[in-house]
Amino acid sequence: MQISCPHCSTALDVTLEHLGEQVQCPACQNRLTVPSEIVPAEGASGPKHLERTGWEEGDHANVSFGMSLLIGAGITVLFLLLMVPFKGTRLGELFLDRGWVNFVETFLFCWGRVILGMKWKKNQSQERATLLNLFPEHLGREIHVGNVWVSLAR
Known about the structure:
The protein has about 150 residues and is mainly alpha-helical. It is built from five helices and four strands; from the N terminus they run E-E-E-E-H-H-H-H-H. It starts with a strand and ends with a helix.
């Protein structure tokens, strides 16, 4: 279903799950409330399910390997440095006095959390981008073979 942003007039496609919710416009970044009920435009037909054809796409959910590795290593070093004052306590012994395995486990835990955080952030931006209608349906009625060839011939 299509609505218009009240701030920038950008056409946004919204799904049923967004009805009545407050969302952020990906074009102008302003907040808007999606109406709880959307009346279809005059002459509009129901939703059409088309099979996608075209080029093969890669996985857009992956985050930067190197960046996540560096951030994870930095958080691990920072955490272990914060454990130094607790060296004589039980907590300090858990992380500092049990050999190399605990250092590796702490690093892998921090790196995994960084990857999850980066994927969550990327997923949020992709969800906002899905609201933006990049190819409005009304252009299909205005642009067709008859007027495209005329424009190219000139």
